[in-house]
C-alpha cells in the first residue's frame, strides 16, 4: 500500500487503490454474516484540533478524521468557485457525484471502522451558491443529499442550460485554482510527511505484526493472504451484497479488520508519533507558518464562500 508522493497537490493515501489491489491467490469469502445491531450513523463534528499539525500531519487513525474533513473542504472550495463562475456565465456545470470522506487506510481509524464498517462514513453537507437575490448579492445555502445522492437544494445556473465546453473548462479551471491556492498553505509539508512514513512499512516490527493478520482474519472466516487481499475481498463483497445485507456485510468486515489490525497499529502508531516529533523538529519554520496561517485561511474561506469545515465522527 504505497503512499503517494505528490507534494504539490492534495496528498492522500489512495484508499481506492487498496480496494482494487489483488492478492496472490483468489481469496475465500467470509461466511454469511450474522445480523448485526444497527448503530446510529456516523455524525459530523466541527471541533478543530488543538494544533493544526494534527489535521495536516496525522499520526493516528483518529487524527485522520480531521484530515478527511480538510480534504473535503478544499474540494468544496473548488466546486463553489466553479459553480460561481458558471452562474456568472448564466449556465450550469455537468452534474458531479456528491463529495465523500475518504479513509486513510495506511493510518487506519480502527475504532471508526469497527463501528461503521469498511466504507460507511458521515454524509458530507454540500454548500452550494444560491442565485443572486433581489439586491444583487449572492447568497449561499447548504444542501443535503436525497436518497439517490442528488442535492435537494439547488440554486445554480439558469434552469439547467448546459454550458459550452469552453465555459465549462474555464470554470473548472477557476475551481481548481481556488482549491490550489487554499491547499498551498499546507500541501508541500503534508507531502513530505507522508513520504517520511514510507520506510515504516519495511520496519521489522511492523512486518512481523502484519504477518499475523491473515491467520487472525481466518479466525473470522476470511481467508486471504495479506491486507491487500482483504481489501480486494471487501470490495467484491460490497459490490455483490444485496442492499438489505450490505450493512451487515460491511460491519462484519470492519469488525474483523479492526480486530486483526490492532496489533499492527500497536506497533505503527507509536512509531508514527515518534517520526512526527522528529519531523516537527526538522521543519520548524514550516510548522510555525502552518500553525499561524492555516486555520485563519480556512475560516476566511468558510465565511466568504459559505463553506462548513466539518469532520466525520463515530
Automatic annotation (TrEMBL):
Key word Signal present: yes
Signal peptide: 1-24
Region (Disordered): 26-47, 121-165
Stretches with biased composition (Low complexity): 121-135
PROSITE patterns: PROKAR_LIPOPROTEIN
Record bears the keyword Methyltransferase: no
Transmembrane segments: none
Keyword annotations of the record: Signal
Protein name: DUF4439 domain-containing protein
